[in-house]
Task: inverse folding
């Protein structure tokens, strides 16, 4: 976002001078993180999300997980163990343990699993947006496309001419 401001891309798109308030990138990052946590909290209340290593592992084993979440500040060993159990499930390490914990009503959560559906799709899109603002964020969607299928862009399938 700061690069876009420096290159005056917003002014070009608006075709007039544009002044961005100081700290705009930080504000956008904060709002995206809140949006991700809100979507995760909604998934939890709908019974689609579970927290903790054991519950996430169980969701993976039973085939109920469509997305794994790991805290950015969590231990790498737990991420590897759960990732090995998950196989090719998409995973994201974008939110902090405190942010994940806030969505589940706890102080800190390091591992979470989210079931499939529109909430999961929305969360994946928002996590990808937030990852652009966080240098230590890691996203692994594990997209394996069959021949003849269009690539996923922006969370939806689009064919291009």
Result:
């Amino acid at each position: 976002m700061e690069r876009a401001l420096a290159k005056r891309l917003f002014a070009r798109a608006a075709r007039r001078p544009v002044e961005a308030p100081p700290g705009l990138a930080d504000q956008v990052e904060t709002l995206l993180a809140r949006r991700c946590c809100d979507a995760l909290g909604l998934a939890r209340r709908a019974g689609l999300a579970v927290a903790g290593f054991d519950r996430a592992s169980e969701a993976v084993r039973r085939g109920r997980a469509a997305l794994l979440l790991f805290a950015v500040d969590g231990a790498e060993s737990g991420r590897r163990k759960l990732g090995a159990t998950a196989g090719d499930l998409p995973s994201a390490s974008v939110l902090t343990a405190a942010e994940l914990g806030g969505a589940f009503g706890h102080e800190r959560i390091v591992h979470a699993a989210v079931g499939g559906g529109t909430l999961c799709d929305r969360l994946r899109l928002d996590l990808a947006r937030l990852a652009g603002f966080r240098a230590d964020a890691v996203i692994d969607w594990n997209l394996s496309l069959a021949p003849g299928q269009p690539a996923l862009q922006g969370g939806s399938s689009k064919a291009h001419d």
